[in-house]
Amino acid sequence: MRPGYALEVEFTTLEQMNKLAVPKVVLFPFEDGDALWVGKKVK
Q1: I need a surface site. Which of 8, 23, 33, 37 has the fewest CB within 10 A?
Q2: End-to-end alpha-carbon separation of the chain, Å?
C-alpha cells in the first residue's frame, strides 16, 4: 500500500442468527450485571 491507493474493506468477525454481539467495552454495570444502551429506528 502506498499513499493514494483506494480499497474497500468489510470486517465480519462473527455472525449468528437472532443474537446481538457487541464489544465488552460498551457494557456498563447495572444492578447485579451489565447493561447496554440500544438505539432503535422508529418509523
Answers
A1: 8
A2: 43
pLDDT tens-digit map of 1-43: 788 888 888 877 777 888 877 888 999 999 999 998 877 788 8
Phi then psi for residue 23, to 5 deg, are: -65, 145
Could you tell me the sign of the dihedral formed by the alpha carbons of 28, 32, 18, 16, in that order? Answer: positive
Grid cell 480499497 is found at: 7
Main-chain phi, psi angles of 33, to 5 degrees:
-155, -150
For 13, which DSSP code?
S
